[in-house]
């Protein structure tokens, strides 16, 4: 059983793997699978700015590309980091990627800064209401 604070620590660690020479806005994510494994990701920027990949999607794509399909929670750390309640909420594209693989009522999103012990928790349903997902294509 991985605690919220343990998952946040993994997300903070993942900030070290970010590549952010343009924005210097460093984000780390740690994605917890239902089987207890954790995939970390940092944001990866590009000289062609639009080619940047967010930390959350880095973590998701690493996990999905290794066969994982069932997810419990994701912790996201970093961003402004001015104080310990200055969180980085996931962008719309990342929320939609979560929606592809996660049960909106069950999947949890934990937000924290790069320091401190403040953690804000949401379900995917709360931050992406009235969403479009795989079932809508059936
Ligand atoms: N970014 C993330 O990694 N996650 C988010 O949810 C929001 C934005 C990254 C993308 C870019 O590298 C930098 O933050 C500034 O937008």
TrEMBL record:
<dbReference type="InterPro" id="IPR050202">
    <property type="entry name" value="Cyt/Deoxycyt_deaminase"/>
</dbReference>
<keyword id="KW-0479">Metal-binding</keyword>
<keyword id="KW-0862">Zinc</keyword>
<dbReference type="GO" id="GO:0005829">
    <property type="term" value="C:cytosol"/>
</dbReference>
<feature type="domain" description="CMP/dCMP-type deaminase">
    <location>
        <begin position="2"/>
        <end position="135"/>
    </location>
</feature>
<dbReference type="GO" id="GO:0008270">
    <property type="term" value="F:zinc ion binding"/>
</dbReference>
<comment type="function">
    <text>This enzyme scavenges exogenous and endogenous cytidine and 2'-deoxycytidine for UMP synthesis.</text>
</comment>
<feature type="binding site">
    <location>
        <position position="91"/>
    </location>
    <ligand>
        <name>Zn(2+)</name>
    </ligand>
</feature>
<protein>
    <recommendedName>
        <fullName>Cytidine deaminase</fullName>
        <ecNumber>3.5.4.5</ecNumber>
    </recommendedName>
</protein>
<feature type="binding site">
    <location>
        <position position="54"/>
    </location>
    <ligand>
        <name>Zn(2+)</name>
    </ligand>
</feature>
<feature type="active site" description="Proton donor">
    <location>
        <position position="56"/>
    </location>
</feature>
<feature type="binding site">
    <location>
        <begin position="43"/>
        <end position="49"/>
    </location>
    <ligand>
        <name>substrate</name>
    </ligand>
</feature>
<keyword id="KW-0378">Hydrolase</keyword>
<dbReference type="InterPro" id="IPR016193">
    <property type="entry name" value="Cytidine_deaminase-like"/>
</dbReference>
<feature type="binding site">
    <location>
        <position position="94"/>
    </location>
    <ligand>
        <name>Zn(2+)</name>
    </ligand>
</feature>
<dbReference type="InterPro" id="IPR002125">
    <property type="entry name" value="CMP_dCMP_dom"/>
</dbReference>
<comment type="similarity">
    <text>Belongs to the cytidine and deoxycytidylate deaminase family.</text>
</comment>
<dbReference type="GO" id="GO:0004126">
    <property type="term" value="F:cytidine deaminase activity"/>
</dbReference>
<dbReference type="InterPro" id="IPR006262">
    <property type="entry name" value="Cyt_deam_tetra"/>
</dbReference>
<dbReference type="Pfam" id="PF00383">
    <property type="entry name" value="dCMP_cyt_deam_1"/>
</dbReference>
<dbReference type="GO" id="GO:0072527">
    <property type="term" value="P:pyrimidine-containing compound metabolic process"/>
</dbReference>
<dbReference type="GO" id="GO:0055086">
    <property type="term" value="P:nucleobase-containing small molecule metabolic process"/>
</dbReference>
């Amino acid at each position: 059983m991985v605690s919220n604070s343990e998952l946040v620590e993994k997300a903070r660690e993942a900030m070290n793997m970010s590549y952010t020479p343009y924005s210097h806005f460093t984000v780390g994510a740690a994605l917890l699978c239902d089987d207890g494994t954790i995939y970390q990701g940092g944001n990866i920027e590009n000289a062609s700015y639009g080619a940047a990949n967010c930390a959350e999607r880095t973590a998701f794509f690493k996990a999905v590309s290794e066969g994982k399909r069932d997810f419990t929670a994701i912790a996201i750390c970093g961003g402004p980091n001015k104080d310990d309640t200055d969180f980085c909420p996931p962008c719309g594209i990342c929320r939609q990627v979560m929606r592809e693989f996660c049960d909106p009522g069950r999947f949890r999103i934990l937000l924290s800064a790069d320091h401190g012990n403040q953690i804000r928790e949401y379900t995917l349903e709360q931050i992406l209401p009235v969403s479009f997902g795989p079932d809508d294509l059936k």
